Amino acid sequence: MKKLKGLGLVLVSVFVLGACSSGENERAGNNEDADVVVGLDDTFVPMGFRDDDGNLTGFDIELAEGVFALNDTEVAFQPIDWSMKETELNNGTIDMIWNGYSQTPEREEEVAFSEPYMSNSQLLVTSKVSNIDLIDQMDGKILGAQEGSSGYNSFNQEPEALKDIVEGEDATLYDSFNEAFIDLESGRIDGLLIDRVYAEYYLNQNEKMDDFNLVETPYEDENFAVGVRQDDDELLAEINDGLQELQDNGEFAEISEKWFGEDVSPD
Known about the structure:
Layout: E1 2-4, E2 15-16, E3 36-40, E4 43-44, E5 48-51, E6 56-57, H1 59-69, E7 75-79, H2 85-90, E8 96-97, H3 105-108, E9 112-113, E10 118-120, E11 122-127, E12 143-146, H4 150-157, E13 172-174, H5 177-186, E14 191-195, H6 196-205, E15 212-216, E16 222-224, E17 227-228, H7 233-249, H8 251-260
Parallel strand pairs: 1-13, 3-7, 3-8, 12-13, 12-14
Antiparallel strand pairs: 2-5, 4-5, 5-6, 8-17, 9-17, 10-16, 11-14, 11-15
């Protein structure tokens, strides 16, 4: 397994690519006075990322702010190492994981999930010049993935789809999809296993959709949900109640339209 960290490269675009809590550990940074702290990967467009002024923004950011505003709960946002997200949650540095966090059986053993609020799937993204537009054409090719992502989990759990055929029977791992896309565009990897929501938003916003193939994968569709500590029933109830109220009062649809051009709330 290869892992690339800290490339220090920046994509020039609109993105800078890159309740009660049971936590008792000291808060990080300026979050010690917040009622609750959300942990996130601050490069995951359009869910939670930094704009060109360095401010956190995104669909999940606005959704979380809307939920906690209903009860005047003060929320703060803490960027974390995504591969350490469950550790950060359970040691009390953060109170929830809310950033395009896919609900999986493996994660359910470590955290309690809210009701799902959005669906997602995994895509293989390749450059058009590679002529790779089918999964089996990755035979002997170099695959990239984000460390700790649900896509990489699926890659390992269902090896017959990709793992058994790619070079080294493993993926080059990145801290963020930003770094992975840099290597994909430069040809250092041949394909990238990535969340559909990220791939479509990034490529559309940067007017690069015509330069890449979006290849469907056989992995099951996923649901995004909020993860909290397993004993944090009060916080979980506040999140579930808040998500339902935002759907009922139309605010969820408004936030969805802003970021996706459609209402992505569950049926």
